[in-house]
Specification:
- The protein has helices spanning about 15-25, 30-35, 45-60, 75-85, 120-130, 150-170, 185-190, and strands at about 90-100, 105-110, 135-140, 170-180, 185.
- By secondary structure, it is an alpha+beta fold.
- It has 2 domains: about 1-65, no CATH class; about 75-190, Cytidine Deaminase, domain 2.
- β1 (about 90-100) and β2 form a beta hairpin.
- It is elongated and about 75 Å long.
- The relative contact order is 0.11.
Length: about 190
């Protein structure tokens, strides 16, 4: 929701109580606010509306949260994210943050490069992973040339990021390079 305070699954996080009641009960925000606090004269109609709002909130909060399927191969990573990177004229480096079952939590854009490269530092890759309490990460970037073969720099960056992830306890599960209709997986292709 653009323009609404908060982030992620809590779009109204940080909104003041008065503002929340005004949005939830247009035209009667202050009356409902008093009813919720048990202030003022007793109004059975407002009390029923308040109980209904609480019941809806209880049901919404107790509903199971659907989670995406865990990644089982680099091909699945490629299929899920290839179109996000396909038309970029420069390298885009992503970190896919994973939960303990290797299901994606969210995608963090780490770097957008120039025509022939991208500068990657472990602090940019792992800052979001630490903040979001990710259990692991999958690294992903494109080669604008269309050839997914890894360069010497790609190999060195992968080595450094795997080492940093090991120190932090957030392992790098794979590093997938996306090309034109093809991909390269360090885990599957290079003796991980």
């Amino acid at each position: 929701m653009p323009g609404v305070p908060g982030r992620g699954g809590r779009p109204l996080d940080g909104a003041e109580e008065e503002e929340l009641f005004r949005m939830a009960f247009p035209g009667d925000g202050e009356g409902m606010r008093r009813a919720a606090r048990g202030e003022g004269h007793r109004d059975p109609s407002r009390e029923r509306r308040w109980e209904a709002a609480l019941e809806l909130a209880r049901r919404a909060l107790s509903a199971p949260v659907p989670r995406p399927e865990p990644f089982r191969s680099a091909a699945e990573v490629f299929e899920r994210y290839r179109y996000r990177l396909a038309d970029s004229p420069v390298e885009v480096f992503l970190a896919v943050l994973l939960d303990v079952k290797h299901r994606p939590l969210r995608v963090e854009r780490v770097s957008v490069g120039v025509l022939d490269g991208s500068l990657i530092h472990p602090r940019e890759v792992f800052a979001a992973a630490v903040r979001e309490r990710a259990a692991a990460v999958i690294l992903l970037h494109n080669h604008p040339s269309g050839d997914p073969s890894p360069s010497a720099e790609d190999r060195e960056v992968t080595r450094r990021l795997r080492s940093a992830g090991g120190i932090l306890g957030i392992p790098v599960i794979d590093h997938v390079i996306v090309g034109d209709g093809a991909f390269f997986s360090f885990r599957e292709e290079s003796g991980w």
